[in-house]
Write a structure and sequence with these properties.
Blueprint (H helix, E strand, L loop, with lengths): L4 H12 L1 H5 L8 H4 L4 H14 L7 H4 L11 E3 L4 E3 L1 H17 L6 E5 L5 H9 L4 E5 L2 H13 L15 E7 L1 H4 L2 H10 L4 E8 L9 H5 L5 E5 L9 E5 L1
Parallel strand pairs: 3-4, 3-5, 5-6
Antiparallel strand pairs: 1-2, 6-8, 7-8
Helix pairs in contact: 1-8, 4-6, 6-7
């Protein structure tokens, strides 16, 4: 099981202390979980964006504002003529996938399982207007996300608990496959079962969690895609609609 205790502590510290918040994306207890995307992977994500949804390239200056908070590691991308965090490019690539699969995200009720600091939510809300965007994660992560997204003037809904509410789209970037097995069972029943569409990037680094076959069995109308770029052997993207 992955030990997230240090990560949760820095999330809470960043939420409560403005000085920690200024540099939280570079903290050694935060970076290995969410800010570890390499420059080469950033280049690969950029190529995927160009290939699958080049329309998004005109918003790169806007997306780059995601890097203005938290002091992430950024690199100069010659093709973009600007600095950008490879993690932000990953979020944009996920947005490109979502648009190719599901079309406009306007007026959707979206739920995201495992939200980091809210970066994916921020990138989506840069150019689309979901009806609602619900974040589900540990309390410490939600405190940081709430602070981060308030900086970006995004209004989101933090549920007291996860209830059986209908959603148009469920998103999870690795988190569903990494969380504890009991959480997987709970969210599969309460969220995935009640979501019309879904996009889950899966890895299998926690041996006691759902297997590939168990994840596939969650929905009947599923499609599996190769993770591109492939960040770990065996990863795949699980979607349904």
């Amino acid at each position: 099981m992955i030990d997230y205790s240090s990560f949760l502590r820095i999330c809470q510290q960043a939420a409560e202390d403005d000085e920690v918040f200024k540099n939280f994306k570079r903290h050694p207890n935060f970076t290995p979980i969410l800010e570890h995307v390499s420059y080469q992977q950033g280049l690969d994500y950029l190529q995927e964006i160009k290939l699958n949804f080049p329309f998004l390239l005109k918003y790169m200056n806007k997306f780059a504002k995601n890097d203005a908070v938290g002091n992430p590691n950024v690199f100069y991308f010659e093709e973009l003529k600007m600095d950008m965090s490879p993690t932000t490019l990953r979020y944009i690539k996920v947005l490109a996938d979502l648009l190719n699969l599901f079309g406009s995200l306007d007026d959707m009720d979206i739920i995201e399982i495992g939200v980091g600091y809210g970066g994916q939510c921020r990138i989506i809300n840069d150019i689309y207007r979901p009806r609602s965007y619900t974040l589900v994660d540990f309390k410490e992560v939600l405190l940081l996300s709430e602070k981060y997204l308030k900086e970006k003037n995004i209004i989101i809904r933090f549920p007291e608990d996860t209830t059986e509410v209908h959603y148009d789209l469920c998103i999870s970037n690795y988190a569903f496959s990494e969380m504890g097995h009991d959480y997987q069972i709970f969210y599969a029943d309460k969220i995935i079962r009640n979501s019309d569409r879904g996009y889950i990037t899966c890895n299998f680094i926690v041996p006691e969690n759902y297997t590939k076959e168990e994840i596939i069995a969650l929905k009947q109308n599923y499609t599996i895609y190769e993770e591109r770029p492939l960040t770990y052997e065996g990863n795949f993207i699980y979607t349904w609609k």
